[in-house]
Amino acid sequence: xxxxxxxxxxxxxxxxxxxxxxxxxxxxxxxxxxxxxxxxxxxxxxxxxxxxxxxxxxxxxxxxxxxxxxxxxxxxxxxxxxxxxxxxxxxxxxxxxxxxxxxxxxxxxxxxxxxxxxxxxxxxxxxxxxxxxxxxxxxxxx
Length: 142
Fold this sequence. Notes:
The chain is of the alpha+beta class. It is built from five helices and six strands, in the order βαβαββααβαβ.
C-alpha cells in the first residue's frame, strides 16, 4: 500500500466576470487551464470566483509541499511583474492552492522562507486543501 501523500499545486489568477485569455495575452504565458463557473447559482455568489486562469504542477507522491509550490512559482517567475500588474489593474487575486491527498502518512505542511518570500512578491495568498485522513497505524505496523 502506498504511504506517501499525493500532492499537486496550482497557481490561480481568479476573479469575477473577466476574460482569463487576457492574462495569457498580457503575460505571454500559457495556462494549464482556464475555468469559468458553469453554475448560474454559484456565479451569483459575490465571494466566489466566476473565472480563473491557472498553472498546475505535476501530481506526485511526496512527503512535502514546498517542491511543488516552487514548481508553479518557477513557471511564472520570469513574467511575475507583468502577472502582478495585470492582476492588480483588474482587481484579480493571485493564489496558490496545494491539494494534499493523505493516503496513510502525514506530509510536512511547511514552506521554506524563500518560498514564502516568492509568494509575497506575487502578492499571492496560499492555502492547503487537505483531503482524506490518514488512518492510525495498527499496532505492530511500522
